[in-house]
Design brief:
Elements lengths: L4 H10 L32 H6 L2 E2 L3 E2 L5 E10 L4 E10 L6 E2 L8 E5 L5 E6 L6 E6 L6 E2 L9 E4 L5 E9 L4 H4 L17 E2 L2 E2 L3 E10 L5 E7 L19 E3 L5 E6 L4 H5 L5 E6 L5 E3 L8 E6 L5 E6 L11 E6 L5 E3 L8 E6 L6 E7 L4 E7 L4 E4 L6 E7 L5 E8 L2 E9 L5 E3 L5 H5 L5 E8 L5 E8 L9 E7 L17 H6 L3 E5 L9 H5 L8 H14 L4 E11 L1 H10 L8 E5 L5 H7 L3 H7 L10 H7 L14 E6 L8 H12 L4 E6 L9 H19 L1
Parallel strand pairs: 34-35, 34-36, 36-37, 37-38, 38-39
Antiparallel strand pairs: 1-3, 2-3, 3-4, 4-5, 6-7, 7-8, 8-9, 10-11, 11-14, 12-13, 14-15, 16-17, 17-18, 18-19, 20-21, 21-22, 22-23, 24-25, 25-26, 26-27, 28-29, 29-30, 30-31, 32-33, 33-35
């Protein structure tokens, strides 16, 4: 059953708000969809469902260890937007409490260090400011009134200061250069990194400011820019947040992450560093300059004597092993705590009860699990073993419980407790249970397939609801992006395997060469070998699964985005008539153009092993010989091309060139183009259109 946007809108309008909401503007609670789906009939998962599920944030633990604070975002498909509200819940689960419903979103929600108030960002006024709400509920009060608004904040542990992030304009634009031409619409560039991810450089930089607080918690005096005049970002662009900043326990030092490079140097480097700023002296020093790759996300030990952070070794390699480093602040001695493991940390947290213990999340064999690290012995213990992805972890200060966010291919994110000793987990939030109970469940199988070079490769196979092995189904080969990004137990509003299976496709999702979680050699083999072993791995996976009697080998399709989109273009010239339909989203079509037009040049420089004009560079020339545009003479398969105009990682002209080529060759083709999307599709109605056209194309050729 498919449920239309209009049907969902009528359903939401008829529902009563399920969670108790107090505080200011509670009368507006009818503007939120409720979680009672009793009137919804059982059905296969739909694109509308993906945007109907509540999206829960990572929880934040109260200072007393008793209560969790988090947000839930609900989407109004008709309005093409989402609203986020704050909730609390006992740490062991139980009644959720809504802290009030407003017309604005609440961001960066956290506890005040004394635990007596909840703090957050909101745009209730003209711009984003910090607000506080009493823990017991009630009216919020505005803490800051910073001209231009702020983007993130952290209280000092003693609550004497707040640091916040604000954009500071330092570079001149065309109107500064020509003040008598106010209507001019032009840019003048003299170096690289003039645009990044999905936005053009505007001459402004993320800077960290510190402001004093009075006895009532109000910001007083003038805020100090601790990076005054520096043309660098902290946090880093485009995805860095306040997790890249930390206060020392005594509130006298700020540790922060920044890549202090500009232009071409920045475009070709991943060398960010950890800096320490002293409030007392006003001086800044770098403590990670011995390392040439990414250094980020500092955390202080409880006694303030040690500093920990995530670190990659090699400059220019964004997919290097992410390690945990420890710095003794008294001696200056640094230690790589991951010297004896090939695991790559996604995030980590220090145990507040045991100074010798760290918990971290890392991918192992396509599942993001929780691990512990004993600092003194370097002993690593795997705690969770379930078929799921853990996306955040906290440590209870009172017992052996961890609090974690978890998702899987069949379930959006919910909050769990995890026993740190046994690994046993228990779901304590149930935001999406009712809607999930109305969705016909798919199933996931872990298969191991032999590759052409004799290795064993994990392949996820996802089966439709009510799968019948006596029937035959069309199958889709899923090609992963990254390229070094594991096909793990992720849940997505775009590449959602449960939705693919719900449309009566068997999904074949291989963890081909070039993905983390299977050791360093497996991960790094892909660099300099685009079009090589990893492409053979794709074909090994689809050949193995299509040999099953329940797969119709005459109805195979292949789909993918980013590196997966490149994979589709490459397979279009090499698949030997295996596939009857192809879909490429934001894929690389022409390596020469990709190298010359992407913004983070370090990525192509590392993975392609150099520039296309380096004719004496044998490794680079090997890469460029695999560019998909060189094999279009072999194209003969219907292909859909999808691209967003604001995609600066793989510019949309790559998609245009592929689509135009297919049409000129007389191959059935469609071009789905989103002027307001980037490398992803993030707006609800765009996403639903994406899915409708995606399955319409596949159904046309495979059913």
């Amino acid at each position: 059953m498919r449920t239309s946007i209009a049907s969902y809108a009528l359903l939401f309008g008829a529902m009563l708000f399920f969670f108790s909401c107090g505080g200011e503007n509670a009368q507006e609670s009818m503007n939120r969809p409720n979680r009672d789906f009793s009137k919804v009939e059982p059905h296969n998962l739909t694109p509308e469902d993906l945007w109907t599920f509540g999206r829960v944030s990572a929880p934040v633990l109260s200072p007393d260890g008793e209560t969790l604070l988090f947000t839930i975002a609900y989407t109004d498909i008709q309005k093409n937007s989402s609203l986020t509200d704050m909730y609390t819940m006992p740490v062991g689960g139980g009644d959720m409490r809504c802290l009030g419903v407003t017309k604005e979103n609440e961001y960066e929600v956290t506890w005040r260090p004394d635990g007596k108030a909840i703090c957050y960002l909101s745009s209730k006024g003209d711009d984003m400011q910090i607000y506080e709400m009493p823990v017991g509920g009630g009216a919020s009060k505005q803490i800051t009134n910073i001209k231009g608004g702020i983007d993130g904040f952290i209280y000092s542990p003693d609550q004497r200061h707040i640091l916040f992030v604000q954009r500071v304009k330092l570079d001149k634009d065309i109107h500064d250069l020509h003040p008598d031409m106010p209507l001019a619409n032009a840019r003048l560039e003299t170096d690289l990194m003039y645009r990044h991810w999905n936005a053009w450089a505007d001459g402004a930089y993320n800077h960290i400011f510190v402001v004093d607080l009075d006895s009532n918690g109000k910001a007083i005096g003038e805020a100090k820019d601790i990076m005054e005049g520096e043309p660098y970002h902290a946090p880093q662009m485009p995805f860095g947040g306040v997790e890249e900043i930390a206060w020392s326990p005594d509130g006298m030092t700020i540790a922060y992450t920044s890549k202090k490079l500009q232009g071409k140097a920045s475009a070709f480097s991943t060398n960010s560093n950890i800096y320490l700023y002293s409030l007392e002296s006003g001086e800044t020093k770098c403590v990670s300059d011995f390392n040439k790759g990414y250094d980020k996300c500092p955390q202080y030990s409880a006694d303030g004597k040690k500093l920990f952070w995530q670190s990659m070794e090699r400059d220019g390699y964004e997919s290097d092993q992410d390690r945990i480093f420890m710095l003794d602040l008294a001696t200056g001695e640094s230690t790589n705590l991951f010297a004896d493991t090939e695991l790559s940390v996604g995030s980590f947290v220090l145990d507040p009860k045991d100074a010798d213990l760290i918990y971290f999340i890392a991918d192992e064999k396509a599942k993001d699990a929780i691990f512990s690290l004993r600092i003194s012995t370097r002993e690593i213990k795997k705690i969770t073993n379930d078929v799921a992805n853990y996306v955040s972890v906290l440590v209870s200060p009172k017992d052996s419980k961890l609090i974690a966010s978890r998702q899987s291919m069949l379930m959006p994110t919910e909050i769990y407790t995890v026993d740190a000793n046994s690994g046993e987990s228990a779901q304590i939030s149930h935001i999406n249970d009712e809607l999930l109970s109305k969705v016909n469940e798919c199933s996931v199988e872990e298969r191991w397939v032999k590759t052409t070079d004799g290795k064993e490769m994990l392949v996820w196979v996802v089966y439709p609801p009510y799968f019948d092995k006596t029937k035959q189904y069309p199958a889709l080969l899923y090609c992963q992006g990254g390229p070094q990004s594991t096909v793990s137990q992720f849940w997505s509003t775009r590449w959602n395997f449960a939705l693919m299976a719900a449309n009566d496709y068997i999904v074949v999702a291989p963890n081909r060469r070039g993905l983390p979680g299977f050791g360093k050699e497996w991960n790094e083999q892909i660099s300099g070998d685009y079009g090589g072993q990893n492409m053979k791995d794709y074909l090994s996976a689809i050949d193995a699964i299509s040999a099953e009697p329940y797969v119709d080998e005459n109805r195979l399709g292949a789909v993918g985005a980013s590196y997966g989109g490149f994979s589709i273009y490459w397979l279009a010239g090499h698949h030997d008539k295996r596939f009857k339909a192809l879909i490429s989203h934001c894929g690389i079509f022409n390596f020469d153009q990709m190298y010359a037009t992407t913004e983070e040049s370090f990525f192509t420089n590392w993975d392609l092993k150099g520039a296309y004009w380096e004719r004496d560079n044998a490794a680079a020339m090997k890469s460029y010989k695999e560019s998909p545009h060189l094999f279009v003479n072999n194209w003969d398969t219907p292909i859909m091309v999808i691209h967003g105009e604001k995609d600066f990682r793989i510019p949309y002209t790559q998609g245009m060139a592929a689509f135009n080529t297919a049409v000129m060759k007389g191959i059935p083709a469609e071009f789905l183009y989103f002027p307001d999307e980037c490398h992803w599709v993030q707006k609800p109605q765009n996403s639903i259109v994406w899915h409708r056209e995606f399955y319409k194309w596949l159904d046309k050729w495979l059913k």
